[in-house]
């Protein structure tokens, strides 16, 4: 199983690569959009601001290449933390336009601040928190309700369609923790930093049987 971790200039990819390798995957950092077609699975990490990271994806030619690889070829993609948020249609973090910065649009929805949703807890949300499934899905197979995962974020995704919301976490209000639209998956938490449960989710992702996302 060849897994490519998109290296578009943000974050330390080492922990993600090591986690995937420990599960038997042939994990490599991808530094050019043309390399997307050379792997069986894709992982999109993210650190920083939605607008800044989308700018890096746009400038590096990743945006269109990722959309085509998923929509035309059905390559499974896992977004992690901010990488999950980038899957949305738009995001308000750092945006310079009223409707927000356009995202990848692979999971229809928007990314907004947790405070704007009514969260009165301390932000950013940092630390371990339990995850509650919203529906059955192979991505969550073998992971008990209430299992703790490691979170670091101040913004959250609000999917347009509840069918794409697989699990939530309670941080004063329900917050999207796992999303999926066909082969496109996202976790707001860091599975690579979440111990055995996180590794189980990564193993489930590697085993997914999927179909392309409709254009």
Automatic annotation (TrEMBL):
- A Gene Ontology term for the protein's cellular component: cytoplasm
The pathway that the record names for this protein is: Amino-acid biosynthesis; L-histidine biosynthesis; L-histidine from 5-phospho-alpha-D-ribose 1-diphosphate: step 5/9
Q: What is its EC number?
A: 4.3.2.10, 3.5.1.2
Task: Give the catalytic activity.
Answer: L-glutamine + H2O = L-glutamate + NH4(+); 5-[(5-phospho-1-deoxy-D-ribulos-1-ylimino)methylamino]-1-(5-phospho-beta-D-ribosyl)imidazole-4-carboxamide + L-glutamine = D-erythro-1-(imidazol-4-yl)glycerol 3-phosphate + 5-amino-1-(5-phospho-beta-D-ribosyl)imidazole-4-carboxamide + L-glutamate + H(+)
Compartment list: Cytoplasm
Q: What is this protein called?
A: Imidazole glycerol phosphate synthase subunit HisH
On subunit structure and binding partners, the annotation says:
Heterodimer of HisH and HisF.
In terms of PANTHER family, this protein maps to: IMIDAZOLE GLYCEROL PHOSPHATE SYNTHASE SUBUNIT HISH
Query: What positions does UniProt annotate as the active site of this protein?
Result: 81, 190, 192
The family database entries (InterPro entries) matched by this protein are listed as:
Class_I_gatase-like (IPR029062), GATASE (IPR017926), Imidazole-glycPsynth_HisH (IPR010139)
State what this protein does.
IGPS catalyzes the conversion of PRFAR and glutamine to IGP, AICAR and glutamate. The HisH subunit catalyzes the hydrolysis of glutamine to glutamate and ammonia as part of the synthesis of IGP and AICAR. The resulting ammonia molecule is channeled to the active site of HisF.
Entry keyword annotation includes Cytoplasm: yes
Keyword Amino-acid biosynthesis appears in the UniProt entry: yes
Superkingdom to which the source organism belongs = Bacteria
An individual GO BP term: L-histidine biosynthetic process
């Amino acid at each position: 199983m060849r897994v490519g971790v998109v290296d578009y200039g943000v974050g330390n990819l080492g922990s993600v690569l090591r986690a995937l390798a420990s599960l038997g995957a042939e994990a490599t950092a991808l530094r050019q959009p043309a390399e997307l077609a050379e792997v069986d699975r894709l992982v999109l990490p993210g650190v920083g601001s939605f607008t800044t990271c989308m700018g890096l994806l746009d400038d590096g030619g990743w945006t269109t290449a990722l959309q085509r690889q998923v929509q035309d070829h059905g390559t499974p993609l896992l977004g992690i933390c901010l990488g999950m948020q980038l899957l949305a249609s738009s995001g308000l973090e750092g945006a310079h336009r009223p409707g927000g910065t356009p995202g990848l649009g692979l999971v229809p929805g928007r990314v907004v601040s947790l405070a704007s949703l009514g969260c009165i807890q301390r932000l950013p949300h940092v630390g371990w928190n339990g995850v509650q499934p919203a529906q059955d899905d192979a991505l969550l197979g073998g992971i008990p309700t209430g299992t703790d995962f490691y979170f670091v974020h101040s913004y959250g995704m609000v999917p347009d369609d509840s069918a794409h919301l697989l699990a939530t976490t309670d941080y004063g209000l329900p917050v999207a923790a796992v999303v999926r639209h066909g082969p496109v998956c996202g976790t707001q938490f860091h599975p690579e930093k979440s111990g055995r449960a996180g590794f189980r989710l990564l193993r489930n992702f590697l085993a997914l049987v999927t179909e392309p996302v409709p254009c």
